[in-house]
Amino acid sequence: MTNYAVDISLVFDQLPPSSIIDWLSDSLYRWRGVAIWPETEATVHKCDFSADFEMPRYGNYHVSFSYRAGEEVIAKTIGFAGIENAPPYSVGDIFLLKYSPKRPSRYYCATHRSRAEGVALILFFVAVGIIGALLAIAFDPDSTH
Question: What are the CA-CA distances from residue 94 to residues 15, 70, 82, 88, 91 (Å)?
Answer without folding.
Answer: 23, 18, 19, 12, 9
